[in-house]
Amino acid sequence: MEITQRIGDVRTQAMTLLRLGHLAEQQGEYTKAISYLQPALEILQRLKSPHAESVSASLDRVMRNS
């Protein structure tokens, strides 16, 4: 994460946050998952990425489980 932030690679940063969010969800750490998925979604929406929709669905699912 630190490297992607330093070099300004926001797409990779978003995908890393997404993966961390999924791992936290699998471990039942829903608050932590939300803290990763929310910024991932915000970045992907800014980039107008097609992945934003699936991240939004993941975030909704985690929020329902928390």
* Ends apart, CA distance between termini: 25 Å
Largest sheet: none
In CATH's first tier, which class applies? Mainly Alpha
Low-confidence stretches: none
Number of domains: 1
For this structure, the CATH topology is: Methane Monooxygenase Hydroxylase, Chain G, domain 1
Secondary-structure class: mainly alpha
CATH architecture annotation = Up-down Bundle
Number of helices: 4
Shape: globular
SSE order, one letter for each helix or strand: HHHH
Helix content: over 70%
Overall mean pLDDT stands at: 94
* Proportion in β-strands: under 5%
Number of strands: 0
Radius of gyration: 11 Å
Please give a structural write-up:
82% of the residues lie in helices and 0% in strands. The chain is globular and about 35 Å long. It has one domain (2-65): Methane Monooxygenase Hydroxylase, Chain G, domain 1 (Up-down Bundle). The longest helix has 17 residues, at 10-26. It contains 4 helices and no strands. It starts with a helix and ends with a helix. Helix 3 runs antiparallel to helix 4. With 66 residues, it is mainly α.
